[in-house]
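Next comes this protein:
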Amino acid sequence: MKRILIVDDEESIRVALSALIGRLGFRVESASNGAAALERLASDDFDIAFVDVRMPDMDGIAVTRAIIEQELPVTVIVMSAYGSIDNAREALQAGAYDYITKPFKPDEVSMVLAKAEEREALRRENARLKREMASSSSFCGIVSQSPLMKDMFALIDKIARVNSTVLIHGESGTGKELVARAIHMRSPRSPRSFVAVNCGAIPETLIESELFGYRKGAFTDANADKPGLFLEADGGTLLLDEIGELPGALQVKLLRVLQEGTIRRVGDTQDTAVDVRIIAATLQNLDDLVAEGTFREDLYYRLNVVPLRVPPLRERPEDIPLLLSHFIAHHGARMESRVRYTAPAAERAMMLYSWPGNVRELENAVERALVLAEGDTISLGDLPERIAESRDEVKRTLATGELSIKKTMRVIEEELIRRALVAANGNRTAASRMLEISHRALLYKMKDYGIR
Protein backbone atom coordinates (compact mmCIF):
# COMPACT_ATOMS: atom_id res chain seq x y z
CA MET A 1 0.00 0.00 0.00
CA LYS A 2 1.35 3.43 -0.98
CA ARG A 3 2.28 5.74 1.89
CA ILE A 4 1.43 9.44 1.70
CA LEU A 5 2.52 12.30 3.96
CA ILE A 6 0.34 15.42 4.22
CA VAL A 7 2.20 18.55 5.32
CA ASP A 8 0.01 21.51 6.33
CA ASP A 9 -0.13 23.83 9.34
CA GLU A 10 -3.95 23.76 9.36
CA GLU A 11 -5.34 20.73 11.17
CA SER A 12 -8.68 20.90 9.32
CA ILE A 13 -6.88 20.54 5.97
CA ARG A 14 -4.83 17.60 7.24
CA VAL A 15 -7.93 15.81 8.54
CA ALA A 16 -10.07 16.44 5.44
CA LEU A 17 -7.38 15.46 2.95
CA SER A 18 -6.35 12.41 5.00
CA ALA A 19 -9.93 11.15 4.96
CA LEU A 20 -10.28 11.74 1.22
CA ILE A 21 -7.01 10.02 0.29
CA GLY A 22 -7.60 7.22 2.78
CA ARG A 23 -10.86 6.35 1.02
CA LEU A 24 -8.84 5.94 -2.19
CA GLY A 25 -6.89 3.10 -0.61
CA PHE A 26 -3.71 4.86 0.53
CA ARG A 27 -2.01 4.82 3.92
CA VAL A 28 -1.92 8.45 5.09
CA GLU A 29 0.11 10.22 7.76
CA SER A 30 0.59 13.93 8.45
CA ALA A 31 2.99 16.60 9.71
CA SER A 32 2.12 20.11 10.91
CA ASN A 33 5.25 21.92 9.65
CA GLY A 34 8.11 21.68 7.20
CA ALA A 35 10.83 20.70 9.67
CA ALA A 36 8.78 17.83 11.07
CA ALA A 37 7.98 16.68 7.54
CA LEU A 38 11.65 16.55 6.50
CA GLU A 39 12.49 14.58 9.63
CA ARG A 40 9.75 12.04 8.83
CA LEU A 41 10.74 11.77 5.17
CA ALA A 42 14.41 11.23 6.04
CA SER A 43 13.71 8.50 8.60
CA ASP A 44 10.82 6.65 6.95
CA ASP A 45 9.69 5.54 3.49
CA PHE A 46 6.95 7.60 1.85
CA ASP A 47 5.92 7.50 -1.80
CA ILE A 48 4.15 10.88 -2.14
CA ALA A 49 4.09 14.08 -0.07
CA PHE A 50 1.33 16.73 -0.28
CA VAL A 51 3.01 19.96 0.88
CA ASP A 52 1.23 23.27 1.53
CA VAL A 53 2.90 26.24 -0.16
CA ARG A 54 2.21 28.73 2.61
CA MET A 55 3.38 27.65 6.07
CA PRO A 56 5.09 29.60 8.87
CA ASP A 57 8.85 29.21 9.47
CA MET A 58 9.45 26.90 6.49
CA ASP A 59 7.18 27.19 3.47
CA GLY A 60 6.41 24.54 0.88
CA ILE A 61 8.97 25.85 -1.60
CA ALA A 62 11.76 25.50 0.98
CA VAL A 63 10.53 22.00 1.87
CA THR A 64 10.53 21.00 -1.80
CA ARG A 65 14.07 22.32 -2.31
CA ALA A 66 15.29 20.45 0.77
CA ILE A 67 13.71 17.20 -0.50
CA ILE A 68 15.47 17.60 -3.85
CA GLU A 69 18.81 18.56 -2.29
CA GLN A 70 18.71 15.61 0.13
CA GLU A 71 17.68 13.30 -2.74
CA LEU A 72 14.79 11.90 -0.71
CA PRO A 73 12.87 9.34 -2.83
CA VAL A 74 9.45 10.97 -2.63
CA THR A 75 7.19 12.64 -5.20
CA VAL A 76 6.13 16.14 -4.10
CA ILE A 77 2.67 17.59 -4.82
CA VAL A 78 2.23 21.15 -3.58
CA MET A 79 -1.06 22.57 -2.34
CA SER A 80 -1.98 26.20 -2.89
CA ALA A 81 -4.96 28.46 -2.32
CA TYR A 82 -6.59 30.13 -5.30
CA GLY A 83 -4.56 33.35 -4.92
CA SER A 84 -1.13 31.70 -4.66
CA ILE A 85 -0.76 29.97 -8.03
CA ASP A 86 2.54 31.80 -8.62
CA ASN A 87 3.92 30.16 -5.48
CA ALA A 88 2.85 26.77 -6.78
CA ARG A 89 4.65 27.40 -10.05
CA GLU A 90 7.77 28.41 -8.12
CA ALA A 91 7.55 25.11 -6.24
CA LEU A 92 7.33 23.25 -9.57
CA GLN A 93 10.50 24.99 -10.69
CA ALA A 94 12.11 23.93 -7.40
CA GLY A 95 11.37 20.28 -8.20
CA ALA A 96 7.76 19.53 -7.21
CA TYR A 97 5.96 17.13 -9.55
CA ASP A 98 2.49 18.72 -9.60
CA TYR A 99 0.11 20.95 -7.65
CA ILE A 100 -3.53 21.12 -6.63
CA THR A 101 -5.56 24.12 -5.50
CA LYS A 102 -7.72 24.56 -2.42
CA PRO A 103 -10.57 23.85 -1.91
CA PHE A 104 -9.98 20.28 -3.11
CA LYS A 105 -12.26 18.38 -5.43
CA PRO A 106 -12.20 14.58 -4.97
CA ASP A 107 -11.76 13.87 -8.68
CA GLU A 108 -8.82 16.31 -8.92
CA VAL A 109 -7.09 14.68 -5.96
CA SER A 110 -7.70 11.24 -7.48
CA MET A 111 -6.31 12.35 -10.85
CA VAL A 112 -3.15 13.92 -9.45
CA LEU A 113 -2.53 10.81 -7.34
CA ALA A 114 -2.89 8.58 -10.39
CA LYS A 115 -0.31 10.67 -12.26
CA ALA A 116 2.03 10.62 -9.25
CA GLU A 117 1.74 6.83 -9.01
CA GLU A 118 2.78 6.53 -12.67
CA ARG A 119 5.76 8.73 -11.95
CA GLU A 120 6.67 6.62 -8.90
CA ALA A 121 6.48 3.44 -11.01
CA LEU A 122 8.83 5.04 -13.53
CA ARG A 123 11.25 6.08 -10.77
CA ARG A 124 11.31 2.55 -9.36
CA GLU A 125 11.82 1.11 -12.85
CA ASN A 126 14.76 3.44 -13.43
CA ALA A 127 16.24 2.42 -10.09
CA ARG A 128 15.83 -1.26 -11.02
CA LEU A 129 17.53 -0.74 -14.36
CA LYS A 130 20.43 1.05 -12.69
CA ARG A 131 20.87 -1.85 -10.27
CA GLU A 132 20.86 -4.34 -13.13
CA MET A 133 23.54 -2.32 -14.93
CA ALA A 134 25.95 -3.49 -12.23
CA SER A 135 25.60 -7.10 -13.40
CA SER A 136 28.38 -8.26 -15.74
CA SER A 137 25.89 -10.10 -17.97
CA SER A 138 23.31 -7.33 -17.93
CA PHE A 139 23.41 -4.03 -19.76
CA CYS A 140 20.58 -1.79 -18.54
CA GLY A 141 18.38 -4.84 -18.05
CA ILE A 142 19.42 -6.56 -21.31
CA VAL A 143 20.89 -9.97 -20.48
CA SER A 144 23.49 -11.08 -23.00
CA GLN A 145 27.05 -12.30 -23.49
CA SER A 146 26.90 -12.41 -27.29
CA PRO A 147 29.61 -10.54 -29.23
CA LEU A 148 26.85 -9.21 -31.52
CA MET A 149 25.03 -7.71 -28.56
CA LYS A 150 28.22 -6.38 -26.99
CA ASP A 151 28.89 -4.51 -30.24
CA MET A 152 25.38 -3.09 -29.96
CA PHE A 153 25.99 -2.07 -26.33
CA ALA A 154 29.10 -0.16 -27.39
CA LEU A 155 27.04 1.61 -30.05
CA ILE A 156 24.36 2.44 -27.47
CA ASP A 157 26.96 4.14 -25.29
CA LYS A 158 28.03 6.30 -28.24
CA ILE A 159 24.45 7.08 -29.23
CA ALA A 160 23.43 7.95 -25.67
CA ARG A 161 25.85 10.87 -25.40
CA VAL A 162 24.20 12.82 -28.23
CA ASN A 163 20.62 13.86 -28.95
CA SER A 164 20.34 12.45 -32.47
CA THR A 165 17.15 10.64 -33.41
CA VAL A 166 17.49 6.84 -33.41
CA LEU A 167 15.59 4.29 -35.49
CA ILE A 168 15.63 0.80 -33.96
CA HIS A 169 14.98 -2.15 -36.27
CA GLY A 170 14.21 -5.60 -34.93
CA GLU A 171 11.84 -8.53 -35.08
CA SER A 172 8.98 -8.90 -32.64
CA GLY A 173 10.20 -9.99 -29.21
CA THR A 174 13.84 -8.95 -29.61
CA GLY A 175 13.61 -6.24 -26.95
CA LYS A 176 13.46 -2.99 -28.92
CA GLU A 177 11.91 -1.13 -25.99
CA LEU A 178 14.66 -2.39 -23.67
CA VAL A 179 17.22 -1.03 -26.13
CA ALA A 180 15.46 2.34 -26.21
CA ARG A 181 15.39 2.40 -22.40
CA ALA A 182 19.11 1.59 -22.35
CA ILE A 183 19.83 4.58 -24.60
CA HIS A 184 17.82 6.77 -22.22
CA MET A 185 19.44 5.34 -19.08
CA ARG A 186 22.98 5.89 -20.42
CA SER A 187 22.19 9.46 -21.50
CA PRO A 188 22.23 12.76 -19.60
CA ARG A 189 18.42 12.63 -19.85
CA SER A 190 18.17 9.63 -17.51
CA PRO A 191 16.86 11.62 -14.49
CA ARG A 192 13.84 12.70 -16.57
CA SER A 193 10.96 10.67 -17.98
CA PHE A 194 11.17 7.80 -20.44
CA VAL A 195 7.78 7.50 -22.16
CA ALA A 196 6.87 4.70 -24.58
CA VAL A 197 3.86 4.60 -26.89
CA ASN A 198 2.82 1.95 -29.41
CA CYS A 199 1.64 3.84 -32.50
CA GLY A 200 -0.30 0.81 -33.71
CA ALA A 201 -2.20 0.29 -30.45
CA ILE A 202 -4.01 3.63 -30.30
CA PRO A 203 -7.04 4.30 -32.54
CA GLU A 204 -6.32 6.81 -35.31
CA THR A 205 -8.99 9.16 -33.91
CA LEU A 206 -7.22 9.38 -30.53
CA ILE A 207 -3.53 9.27 -31.31
CA GLU A 208 -3.12 13.02 -31.98
CA SER A 209 -4.58 14.01 -28.60
CA GLU A 210 -2.53 11.27 -26.88
CA LEU A 211 0.73 12.51 -28.39
CA PHE A 212 0.19 16.26 -28.35
CA GLY A 213 -2.52 16.72 -25.71
CA TYR A 214 -5.51 19.04 -25.92
CA ARG A 215 -6.99 22.20 -24.45
CA LYS A 216 -10.13 22.21 -22.37
CA GLY A 217 -13.17 22.49 -24.65
CA ALA A 218 -11.31 21.32 -27.76
CA PHE A 219 -14.00 18.67 -28.23
CA THR A 220 -17.05 17.32 -26.40
CA ASP A 221 -15.30 15.27 -23.70
CA ALA A 222 -12.36 17.64 -23.19
CA ASN A 223 -13.34 18.73 -19.66
CA ALA A 224 -9.79 19.75 -18.68
CA ASP A 225 -6.42 20.43 -20.26
CA LYS A 226 -4.36 17.34 -21.09
CA PRO A 227 -0.60 17.74 -21.61
CA GLY A 228 -0.02 14.73 -23.91
CA LEU A 229 2.95 12.38 -24.12
CA PHE A 230 5.36 14.88 -25.68
CA LEU A 231 4.99 17.21 -22.71
CA GLU A 232 5.12 14.27 -20.31
CA ALA A 233 8.48 13.33 -21.84
CA ASP A 234 9.77 16.93 -21.85
CA GLY A 235 13.46 16.87 -20.96
CA GLY A 236 13.52 13.10 -21.40
CA THR A 237 12.96 10.51 -24.12
CA LEU A 238 9.90 9.47 -26.12
CA LEU A 239 9.83 6.03 -27.77
CA LEU A 240 7.48 5.80 -30.76
CA ASP A 241 7.14 2.04 -31.14
CA GLU A 242 5.76 0.58 -34.38
CA ILE A 243 6.38 3.92 -36.09
CA GLY A 244 5.33 2.40 -39.41
CA GLU A 245 1.73 2.34 -38.15
CA LEU A 246 1.60 6.13 -37.63
CA PRO A 247 -1.20 7.64 -39.77
CA GLY A 248 -0.19 9.97 -42.61
CA ALA A 249 -1.62 13.12 -41.01
CA LEU A 250 0.35 12.47 -37.82
CA GLN A 251 3.52 11.84 -39.83
CA VAL A 252 3.34 15.46 -41.00
CA LYS A 253 2.93 16.71 -37.42
CA LEU A 254 5.79 14.55 -36.17
CA LEU A 255 8.04 15.87 -38.91
CA ARG A 256 7.23 19.39 -37.74
CA VAL A 257 8.19 18.51 -34.16
CA LEU A 258 11.52 17.13 -35.37
CA GLN A 259 12.21 20.20 -37.48
CA GLU A 260 11.06 22.95 -35.10
CA GLY A 261 11.01 21.45 -31.60
CA THR A 262 7.45 22.60 -30.96
CA ILE A 263 4.04 20.98 -30.63
CA ARG A 264 0.50 22.33 -30.82
CA ARG A 265 -2.16 20.78 -28.61
CA VAL A 266 -5.55 20.02 -30.09
CA GLY A 267 -7.70 23.13 -29.72
CA ASP A 268 -4.72 25.41 -29.00
CA THR A 269 -3.80 28.48 -31.04
CA GLN A 270 -0.14 28.67 -30.04
CA ASP A 271 2.83 26.33 -30.23
CA THR A 272 4.59 24.96 -27.16
CA ALA A 273 8.34 24.31 -27.15
CA VAL A 274 9.42 20.80 -26.10
CA ASP A 275 12.83 19.28 -25.45
CA VAL A 276 12.32 15.60 -26.23
CA ARG A 277 14.67 13.02 -27.67
CA ILE A 278 12.73 10.84 -30.09
CA ILE A 279 13.55 7.17 -30.57
CA ALA A 280 11.49 5.25 -33.13
CA ALA A 281 11.22 1.47 -33.38
CA THR A 282 9.81 -0.82 -36.03
CA LEU A 283 9.72 -4.44 -37.14
CA GLN A 284 8.63 -3.32 -40.62
CA ASN A 285 10.91 -2.39 -43.49
CA LEU A 286 10.36 1.36 -43.73
CA ASP A 287 12.14 1.46 -47.11
CA ASP A 288 9.31 -0.70 -48.46
CA LEU A 289 6.67 1.53 -46.86
CA VAL A 290 8.31 4.61 -48.40
CA ALA A 291 8.30 2.90 -51.80
CA GLU A 292 4.61 2.03 -51.33
CA GLY A 293 3.83 5.65 -50.46
CA THR A 294 2.45 4.86 -46.98
CA PHE A 295 5.37 6.42 -45.10
CA ARG A 296 6.82 9.86 -45.77
CA GLU A 297 10.33 9.80 -47.19
CA ASP A 298 11.33 13.09 -45.50
CA LEU A 299 10.18 11.75 -42.11
CA TYR A 300 12.06 8.51 -42.69
CA TYR A 301 15.33 10.36 -43.22
CA ARG A 302 14.68 12.52 -40.13
CA LEU A 303 14.13 9.42 -38.00
CA ASN A 304 16.90 7.31 -39.49
CA VAL A 305 19.77 9.53 -38.37
CA VAL A 306 21.27 6.70 -36.31
CA PRO A 307 19.95 3.27 -37.34
CA LEU A 308 20.32 0.44 -34.81
CA ARG A 309 19.49 -3.22 -35.48
CA VAL A 310 18.63 -5.60 -32.63
CA PRO A 311 19.82 -9.12 -33.59
CA PRO A 312 17.21 -11.90 -33.38
CA LEU A 313 17.81 -14.68 -30.87
CA ARG A 314 18.65 -17.24 -33.58
CA GLU A 315 21.75 -15.15 -34.45
CA ARG A 316 23.02 -15.31 -30.86
CA PRO A 317 22.32 -18.84 -29.57
CA GLU A 318 25.08 -18.44 -26.96
CA ASP A 319 22.64 -16.20 -25.06
CA ILE A 320 20.02 -18.94 -24.68
CA PRO A 321 21.56 -20.68 -21.60
CA LEU A 322 22.16 -17.31 -19.94
CA LEU A 323 18.61 -16.10 -20.63
CA LEU A 324 17.25 -19.46 -19.50
CA SER A 325 18.97 -19.12 -16.10
CA HIS A 326 17.88 -15.49 -15.83
CA PHE A 327 14.20 -16.24 -16.47
CA ILE A 328 14.20 -19.28 -14.16
CA ALA A 329 15.56 -17.09 -11.35
CA HIS A 330 13.31 -14.12 -12.12
CA HIS A 331 9.99 -15.91 -12.60
CA GLY A 332 10.87 -18.69 -10.17
CA ALA A 333 11.17 -16.21 -7.31
CA ARG A 334 7.87 -14.56 -8.24
CA MET A 335 6.06 -17.88 -8.59
CA GLU A 336 7.76 -19.46 -5.54
CA SER A 337 8.92 -22.31 -7.79
CA ARG A 338 11.44 -24.95 -6.70
CA VAL A 339 12.91 -25.17 -10.20
CA ARG A 340 16.62 -24.37 -10.40
CA TYR A 341 17.91 -26.48 -13.30
CA THR A 342 17.21 -27.52 -16.90
CA ALA A 343 17.62 -31.09 -18.12
CA PRO A 344 20.30 -31.48 -20.84
CA ALA A 345 17.71 -32.77 -23.36
CA ALA A 346 15.48 -29.72 -22.76
CA GLU A 347 18.39 -27.31 -23.10
CA ARG A 348 19.55 -28.99 -26.33
CA ALA A 349 16.04 -28.66 -27.77
CA MET A 350 16.01 -24.96 -26.93
CA MET A 351 19.43 -24.49 -28.52
CA LEU A 352 18.18 -26.12 -31.74
CA TYR A 353 14.89 -24.21 -31.90
CA SER A 354 14.79 -21.13 -34.17
CA TRP A 355 12.80 -18.89 -31.76
CA PRO A 356 10.67 -16.93 -34.26
CA GLY A 357 9.21 -15.02 -31.29
CA ASN A 358 12.73 -14.29 -29.99
CA VAL A 359 13.44 -13.47 -26.33
CA ARG A 360 9.76 -12.93 -25.54
CA GLU A 361 8.93 -16.45 -26.76
CA LEU A 362 11.78 -17.90 -24.69
CA GLU A 363 10.55 -16.08 -21.58
CA ASN A 364 6.99 -17.36 -22.12
CA ALA A 365 8.30 -20.92 -22.63
CA VAL A 366 10.26 -20.77 -19.36
CA GLU A 367 7.29 -19.39 -17.43
CA ARG A 368 5.09 -22.21 -18.79
CA ALA A 369 7.74 -24.80 -17.90
CA LEU A 370 7.93 -23.50 -14.32
CA VAL A 371 4.19 -24.14 -13.97
CA LEU A 372 4.41 -27.69 -15.37
CA ALA A 373 7.74 -28.85 -13.94
CA GLU A 374 7.75 -31.37 -11.10
CA GLY A 375 10.71 -31.15 -8.80
CA ASP A 376 13.61 -28.77 -9.33
CA THR A 377 14.34 -29.41 -13.05
CA ILE A 378 12.70 -28.43 -16.34
CA SER A 379 12.39 -31.54 -18.51
CA LEU A 380 11.81 -31.88 -22.24
CA GLY A 381 8.14 -32.68 -21.60
CA ASP A 382 7.65 -29.33 -19.82
CA LEU A 383 8.41 -27.38 -23.01
CA PRO A 384 5.84 -26.46 -25.68
CA GLU A 385 5.55 -29.19 -28.30
CA ARG A 386 6.96 -27.05 -31.10
CA ILE A 387 10.18 -26.51 -29.11
CA ALA A 388 10.52 -30.09 -27.87
CA GLU A 389 10.06 -31.41 -31.41
CA SER A 390 12.83 -29.19 -32.82
CA ARG A 391 15.35 -31.64 -31.39
CA ASP A 392 13.46 -34.66 -32.73
CA GLU A 393 13.08 -33.13 -36.22
CA VAL A 394 16.81 -32.67 -36.64
CA LYS A 395 17.50 -36.12 -35.17
CA ARG A 396 14.97 -37.76 -37.51
CA THR A 397 16.55 -36.07 -40.53
CA LEU A 398 20.06 -37.09 -39.55
CA ALA A 399 18.96 -40.62 -38.59
CA THR A 400 18.02 -41.38 -42.18
CA GLY A 401 21.71 -41.44 -43.07
CA GLU A 402 21.11 -38.69 -45.61
CA LEU A 403 24.37 -36.88 -46.38
CA SER A 404 23.04 -34.44 -48.94
CA ILE A 405 23.19 -30.89 -47.57
CA LYS A 406 20.65 -29.84 -50.18
CA LYS A 407 18.03 -32.42 -49.10
CA THR A 408 18.65 -31.88 -45.39
CA MET A 409 18.34 -28.12 -45.73
CA ARG A 410 14.97 -28.56 -47.46
CA VAL A 411 13.64 -30.30 -44.35
CA ILE A 412 14.94 -27.53 -42.10
CA GLU A 413 13.74 -24.78 -44.45
CA GLU A 414 10.20 -26.19 -44.55
CA GLU A 415 10.13 -26.41 -40.76
CA LEU A 416 11.31 -22.80 -40.37
CA ILE A 417 8.66 -21.56 -42.82
CA ARG A 418 5.90 -23.37 -40.93
CA ARG A 419 7.09 -21.93 -37.61
CA ALA A 420 7.35 -18.40 -39.01
CA LEU A 421 3.79 -18.61 -40.33
CA VAL A 422 2.56 -19.79 -36.93
CA ALA A 423 4.46 -16.99 -35.15
CA ALA A 424 3.00 -14.44 -37.59
CA ASN A 425 -0.55 -15.79 -37.16
CA GLY A 426 -0.65 -16.65 -40.86
CA ASN A 427 0.47 -13.19 -42.03
CA ARG A 428 2.77 -14.04 -44.93
CA THR A 429 4.27 -10.56 -45.15
CA ALA A 430 5.31 -10.67 -41.50
CA ALA A 431 6.54 -14.26 -41.89
CA SER A 432 8.72 -13.30 -44.86
CA ARG A 433 10.34 -10.59 -42.73
CA MET A 434 11.08 -13.10 -39.95
CA LEU A 435 12.60 -15.48 -42.48
CA GLU A 436 14.53 -12.60 -44.11
CA ILE A 437 13.32 -13.51 -47.58
CA SER A 438 11.08 -11.63 -50.00
CA HIS A 439 7.31 -12.06 -49.92
CA ARG A 440 7.43 -13.47 -53.45
CA ALA A 441 10.09 -16.03 -52.45
CA LEU A 442 7.96 -17.14 -49.50
CA LEU A 443 4.92 -17.70 -51.72
CA TYR A 444 7.04 -19.76 -54.11
CA LYS A 445 8.47 -21.90 -51.28
CA MET A 446 5.04 -22.40 -49.70
CA LYS A 447 3.76 -23.71 -53.03
CA ASP A 448 6.84 -25.92 -53.40
CA TYR A 449 6.39 -27.47 -49.95
CA GLY A 450 2.60 -27.67 -50.20
CA ILE A 451 2.06 -25.31 -47.26
CA ARG A 452 -1.36 -23.66 -47.17
The chain has a mean pLDDT of 86. The first strand starts at residue 3 and ends at 7. The two ends are 53 Å apart (CA to CA). The chain has three domains: 3-126, 143-311, 316-449.
